[in-house]
Structure formats: C-alpha cells, structure tokens
Amino acid sequence: MASPPRKPERMPSRDELLRVLSQAEERPRTNELLKAFGLKATARPLMKRMVRELESEGLIVSRRGRKPRDVALDGLPPVGVVDVTAIDENGDLVCQSAMAAAARILLPVEALDGKAPTVGDRLLVRLYPRGAERYDAHLMRLLPRLENEVVGVLEQSEDGVRLRPTDRNAKMEYRVGPEDLGGAGLGDMVKASVVQSPRPLALPRARVLERLGRADDPGIVSLAVATRLGLPMAFSAQALALAAAATQVELGKRTDYRNLDLVTIDGADARDFDDAVWAAADHAPSNPGGYRIVVAIADVAHYVRPGDPLDRDAHERGNSVYFPDRVIPMLPEELSNELCSLKPEVERACVVAEMRIDANGSLLDQRFRRGLMRSRARLTYERVQAARDGFPDDEIAPLLEPVIGPLYAAYEILAAARRKRGAIDLDLPERRVIFAEPGQMAEVTRRVRLDSHMLIEEFMILANVAAATVLEEANQPALYRVHDKPDPLKLETLSEFLERVGVPWTRGAKRPGDFTALLEKISEPAMRETVSGFILRSQAQAVYSPRNIGHFGLNLRRYAHFTSPIRRYSDLVVHRALIKVCRLGEGALPETDVEALAEEGAHLSRCERRAMEAERAALDRLVALYMADKEGSRFAAKITGCQRFGLFVVLDQIGAEGLVPVSSLGEDMFQFDERHHALVGRRWGKVFALGDRVEVVLALADTTTGALLFRIVEHKPGATAELARDTWSKGYSAGRGGACGRNRSGRPANIRMGRGKKSAPRRK
Fold first, then answer.
1. Which of 78, 217, 600, 737 is most solvent-facing, going by the fewest CB within 10 Å?
2. How far is it, in rounded angstroms, from Cα 635 to Cα 650?
3. Run of H or E residues at 349
4. Are strands 634-643 and 693-702 parallel, antiparallel or unpaired?
5. Can you give the three-state secondary structure of 500-517, one letter per residue?
6. Which strand (E) or helix (H) includes residue 412?
7. pLDDT per residue over 645-681, tens digit each?
8. Phi first, then psi: what are they for 221, rounded to 5°?
9. Residue 492: phi, psi to the nearest 5?
C-alpha cells in the first residue's frame, strides 16, 4: 500500500514575509526564516525564491549589502509604499513616501486600470525618476488602508497584545504595547489611534484612546459600531439650547384637527411618533365606495429652521440610526421624543395631508395644511392586529368600529390597487433582538409582518405620492425618492438561474409587476424565498434626487419622502418645499437650484447607507453574542448563498445567517457551478445548492466581528441541487467533451475550483 502524499506546507504570504524581514535588526538567514514560520527543510527552495523576488523588486536589500537595482540618487528605491494625499487638477494622484516626505510623486490617471485609488489609500508602486525629487509612479498593488482610528478588541497573542478590529473587512491586526493600553485590559472593546510605523510594511501599532466596555457586554455593541463608523453622537451646545427653549405651538392660523380621531400605530418599542392616521367613507355622490384619508405628520419645520444650529446638526446626521437597544436621533430628545412626537392626549403641531381615493384606490385630490392635533391613542401593530382578528383589549375596543374599521377598509382598497399596479412585494425574513432589560438580551426571533404593518405602509405611500404630486405640478425643486430600473446584467443572471431550475421566465425588459407575478407562480416556500433574494440583488439602490425618474419598485411615477421628518432630513426638505408651494407660513425652503439639491440628495443617500450599515453590523454582533454559548448546538437551516469559498445558510427559527466553509463539506474537492449556483464534489458528485434544506452545527460565533461559522450534519437536496447533479453526471459519463464541456483537467468547463479538502488517496 502506498503511503499517503505529504500535506503541502503553508508558505507565508509576501506581506507576512516582508513584515518579518522589516522588523528584524539583521537580515535573517533562510534557516532562521523556516524556523520562524514553522516550516521544514523541504520548503527551503520556495523560501529562497520568495526572498529573491523581494530583492529583485527592491523591497529588501540583499544579504551581501547590494543596493536594489535602479536606486534613485536621493535614496528612494524603485519600488515602495506611498500614500495618496491629493488629486491634482488633471486628475492625477499626488502621493507621498514616508522615506522622503519632500519628494513629489505623481501617479498619472491614464496609467490606472480598473477602479482608481482615492485619497487616503496606501499603494505599492514602482517609481520612475523625473528630475530632482520628482517621480512618476506605476501602481502595482492597492494595500490595506490604515485608518487613523480603529475600534476593536484587545486579545493576547504570542508576541504580546493585539487589537483585533470589529470591522469584518479589516485586513490586519495592530500591536498594542504596554505603554499604549491606556488602562484597558484583555477582552475590552476600545477605540484606538493608529501609530504610523517608519517601516511601511511592518505590523502597525495602535494606542488606546478610550475604553468602551467589555467586548462580551451586549450594552456596548451599538456604541462600538457607532464609534467605528463615526456617527455623530453629541449635539452642539447651540442646538441643545434651541431645543430646550422650544415651546408648544398654539392654534393661531392653523387648522384645528383636535376633534378628529387620529391615532398613531407604531412598534411597541417606538419612542418618536411622527405620523397619525384617520379614515372615513367618502359620502360625496361623485365618489361612491371612495374614502377620505388624513395623514398628520409632526411639524418639524416649525422648530428646525433652515441654517440654524438644529438644522446644521440634523443635516450632518442625515437620519436617525435605530439600533436594537437604542437610537441615535437626528434631533435632540426634547424635540424627537417630546414636542415633535405625536403623543396621545396632548396638543401637537402637524402638517396634514388631506386626501380622497376612489373605489379603485386612485388618488383623486390632495390638500396640505398646517394644523394642531391631539392623538386619540398610541397603538401598536400587534394590538391593532389582535383587535382586527377579534381580540381587542380594553383601550382599543371602543375604537374598533369608528376608527380601526375604516382604516382597514381604506387599506384594503389601497392594497388591491397596489396589486393591480404591480409593485414589487418581497417578503424576506428579518431578524429581531429582544431585550428583557437594558443590556440583557432575551431572545433573537424573526420579525413577523402583519396586515397592520402594511396598513401604515400604504397610508404613508399615499401621502408621499400626494406630496410629490403637489411639488411636481408646481415645478418646485425638491428631493424625490427615486428608484431606477434593474441592472440588465443582474437580470440576465436571474434569468439564467430560473432557466436552470425550470421556472418560466421570458428575457427582456421587465415591469415591476413581472417580478410579483413570478413569485406568485412559485409554490415551494424555499424556492420562492431564494428567488426573492435574486430579485432583491438585481434591483438598483433607491436614492434621493431632484431629478424625478420615478420609483420602479413601487411602480409610481411620483414619489417623495414626506412622512418621517423626525428621523429623516429628506422629509424635512420636502416639508419645507410644501410650505413654500402651499404658502403655509414660516420655515419654507430657501431658494435653491437643482445642482445644489443634487449634492444634498447624494449626501443624504450616503447617510442612509451608513445608517443601514451600522444597524446591520450591530445586529450581526448581537446575534453572535446571543449564539456564543450555543456552539455545538444543531439548527434547522436553508442554503441561501453559494460561492467558491463556501455556503451561506439562514437558520429557520431566528433568521441568523452564517457561513459553511467549503473545507468543512467533506473529503472531496468541491467546485463552484456558476450556472446552478451550487458546489459540486469533483469525485463523488455530492451537490449543495441554493434552497437546499440542511441541519447545521454552530462551529464558531465570532463575537468581535459578528461572523457565524457552521458545519452541515444533515442535507436534503432541493430541485436546484438535482439539476446541478444531473449536469455533473452527464459530464462525468461523457468524459472530455461531454454535456458540460470539459477543460484540460477533465472537470466541467462551467465549474470553478473551490478550496475544499482534497479527497483521500484510493487504496491500490
């Protein structure tokens, strides 16, 4: 019996080798390098080759003391690390080297291939002298960016204390010396400044600026995420003073809505109530079966005037950020939770959209007024839904017939109009973290979508359409919420997947209703959810813009965010535009042009994406903390993503997402089948594909980054897996040139290699 082949030794990366060489006082010999990396003598030729390559590129000096080739007269080597410091008037990148700060280094824009670096990036470049202390640079590689500040966890390593960043995309760790700990200890979450090393490729050092708390404390997760992303945490003294001095609005010239049965319907944990609703049948003879709808929105524009300190702080934030356990508000709490919040049985200033719809859900007319209201009740989605289902509590019971009933009747008309219009409706699972008390997580569950949620959603959409209609008809520059058509290339990917799994779908231009009709054809829940994910990834990003191109997803020609000015600055801009157009008094939008509004929209879109990233990162870390004591436990799950490096799975019960590394799939070489979005075992044809049901064991919950790693213990292939296996079988039986088409290695040509374990050698 032949002995099994020797497992190849893991050679260090170029960066790891450069780091060791740059930190050594004297140039290590090859034997010393092998020992440092735990390698055997068999790795000597590879190690010597790597060292010679670094010498030839000028990154290190040879042992004999020879200078790197083509060294410039003033000392800069031909290859080095530079920082991008500016972009000149020609679009060329201005760079600086730590070895010669006075040297002027230009990276011509025409020499760049693909995505261009930007200010703050670190580059490995080849330098060409162009005179005294002047160089042209050629980009060799984009290096990991060194942030000025980093948030991470202090951990023990073999060579001392390391700071491991919470950012999952971070490419490196940081050394923290005893003098730089600042009173923090192992296991602490800290904010630190990055100390630049005189050796560009050496492991950077960090100095602790602030101890945030224990890394395993759920109460500091949101704070750590907000600190890492640079979210504004404190209001200016001037803004706080204005908020504290604000007073309740009197009726004056406002319309009196205090006797109207307006109610707020929000989540149980909501603190700021910026919208209230009312509906009643329209008894006008010209509108049989129609309804009158009133949506009252907090009058934030009364308290926050253009250019004042409150406005400047709100503009910087762009929106409130909602974490599972706290909120970073756009406005100080004196406004967001008090004077602007439509609390029950207190008078509040509001901007009101009075609307009429016909029996088909079409918007007949709209009018905007400034008013004074008194909310009848603060209701929650769950309580309203229970009342609708026949289980009202004592507070809601008297409101069921005069208030709740008309709201649902109007909603059903609007929902039918939405279905007829053909808006995209993706019911994708969401996670929810429930806290028993501050800092104490009780459970993680899937968020349930109720009819009461959709009722408020439809009322808000109607008000947003009404606002956009008034502004467009008046030719008033404002910010619209726009959503472009899907990317054709992504639609082609969706079409190919549907073709492989046998779901009818014609190629070509698509309307929003086509996606909804597609989902309605799919009866299997797992496949429907998989296709929903594809549809979501094919869609463009919704943004704010003064150029109204409509909203593709909702299939609306006019749409502007109007209903949440407490938490979105874009809505405040729309309020000010309506005040101007409808002549509603003070606080109107100043004169502005489309270009200025375009910059405003781009800023607010960036703020929105930053908030979404923060909320997602905090949720990931909280879920990982919740799962930390469940390592080794089994969970029912479904495969929702497939890449060369592994599978993404979502747990049924709590909706947590994690990775199954390809190396854990078994003793086979797995290959990525791009056409079927599957991993296929090269030898035995075992297939894992989107939609497959699996049972997984939690292998690791990384509480620092929020990553979860799983291992599959049971597997039930779905339709996609069977199709991928059929393709593999045909190619396997046909050999070279079979049904799949085979490349020189004999494997199907449409399948790319993954990094799975090699199969065990066969016995002879």
1. 737
2. 10
3. strand 347-357
4. antiparallel
5. HHCCCCCCCCCCHHHHHH
6. helix 405-421
7. 999 999 988 889 999 999 899 888 898 888 778 899 8
8. -60, -50
9. -65, -40
Q: How far apart are CA 278 and CA 434, in angstroms?
A: 30
CB atoms within 10 A of CB 758: 13
Length of the chain: 764
Contacts 24+ apart (CB under 8 A), 516-520: 516/419, 516/422, 516/423, 516/424, 516/425, 517/422, 519/425, 519/426
> Which residue from 282, 417, 453 is spatially nearest to 355, judged by alpha carbons?
282
Q: What is the pTM of this model?
A: 0.78
What is the C-alpha to C-alpha distance for residues 476 and 469, in angstroms, rounded to an integer?
10
Between CA 470 and CA 76 the distance in angstroms is: 64
Instruction: Look at residue 140 and give its three-state secondary structure.
Output: strand
The predicted-structure confidence for 406-455, as pLDDT tens digits, reads as follows 999 999 999 999 999 989 888 777 888 888 777 778 888 888 889 999 99
C-beta of residue 65 within 8 angstroms of C-beta of residue 95: no
Q: How far apart are CA 350 and CA 369, in angstroms?
A: 8
Q: What angle do CA 344, 349, 352 make, to 5 degrees?
A: 95
Give the CA-trace dihedral at 42, 44, 46, 52, to 10 degrees. -170
Q: How far apart are CA 610 and CA 761, in angstroms?
A: 50
Tokens of 275: 């919208």
Q: What angle do CA 273, 235, 276 make, to 5 degrees?
A: 10
Residue with tokens 């019971």: 397
